[in-house]
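BUG: 3D viewer hangs when loading the predicted structure for this chain

Environment: internal workstation, default settings.
Expected: structure renders.
Actual: progress bar stalls at 90%.

Input used:
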Amino acid sequence: MRGVWWIAAAALGAASAAGLALVPFASGGSRAPAALVTLDVSPRGPGSISTSTAGGIDLDNGNAAISRPCEENVGEGLCHWAFPSGTSVTLAANAEGTGFAGWSNPDCPGTAPCTIALDDAVTSIVALFSPLTLGVRLSSSSGTVTSNPPGITCSVDGDPGCEHGFAANSRVQLTVTGGDFKGWNGPCAPADARTCTIIVDDQKTWAGARFGDDPEPQLATTINVQFQLQKTGNGGGTVTASNIDCGSRCSSQIGYGTSLTLTAKPDGSSAFGGWGGVCAQAQLTCTLAVGPITKVKAVFVHDTTAPSAPSGLKVTGTTSTSVSIAWGASTDNVGVTGYDIYRDGAAAGAADATLFTVPGLACSRSYTLAVDATDAAGNRSQKATVVAATKPCRLASRLAGVAVRRAGTIRRIEIQLRVNRATSAVLALTGAGRKVASGRFAVRPGTNLLRLRVAAAASAGRYRLTVAVIDPDGGAAQAFSRGVLLPRGR
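Structure tokens produced before the viewer hung:
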């Protein structure tokens, strides 16, 4: 059976015509072969990277199998390997110096072999070995650069004292003495201080010191790596950086050692769960050096944390038909979106601020009011409660009846007075321009029977009874008037 040859291209950097591989498959097969994807491999320092995974192609020399470890560990050196998409490739670090410091992929912690699954994007993997060389270049011989920890003593560009080996990821201080120093170029910071700090994480790691009007020293170039960011978790959000705006995954070619600041922004129903161990979980921003790190996971999780209960719920004002309340703001791991208010267990309204007026209440009545907080994911806090009473109802009164009672020589005026509030009533019986009887009576809500006794000396005849019901809120008294026929006493 005649075979059919498919041409697959690897697409990065130094891989040129050697990056074209012929992948055969049987013409009668039911499936097309998996596309080849590029794996960029780079040891930095004295060591190499090898793989035991079959099916790879060495794109640098066109070999249909990867037959040698990658030893391209200086400057722009890296190896280009290709595997079918979806292959899980296991890589081993082979140290030749003082030790292996670790992988650039946080999915491969420690120094054990690293297994990575290749998708349809280019993947870079870097292995750091110790020691790594720190090199210093001077624009002139007018000053001296020394290091802490010791190792660098450099006053003439190219002198052996301008290079020294340090453990991978070491923080080294470089100090300039003498000369008209103008600043550093390279990753040494701060760039304008005579003493700067540099992280030794490349082979070589370079710093340049400029003096006077000299141009900046030319520093050796290094590799470009493919930086990948992957969003994981059951929540949602975005990650942005300079020239990066990541959806579910983003990938970009970035120069080795470039400082990159990533910013995570969870959506309204999610919380940020961290950077996969690269930066602290609580930080929404993560600054890292690309190369020593080539992959980052941003974890977004569905928010299941409820806000804290509103604090200090209190009544701030009342009327006969409303109660005003206020409370302390709730807190939430993502953000509080609002508050719901309840009256005797039933919904009474919603608020964005920490105050609310509950309307439509009955006068002279107590209510149990409650408030809880919600977030965008629908999580709801515990309720804060307070008991509040509306102000008394406005005074209402009615003269329900007037009668005259006589028992022997004793005459009494009996009044039925209905009121809705406890107060007092003033009664007066007048005739012929003079008062013949009066009294002040306490009254309670409901029907009250008030008895006004008439003096025996009062003659029989027509009189005027007035009833004044006192308003307990300070308003005008409610007055009633009736004509009364007073009989003769026996």
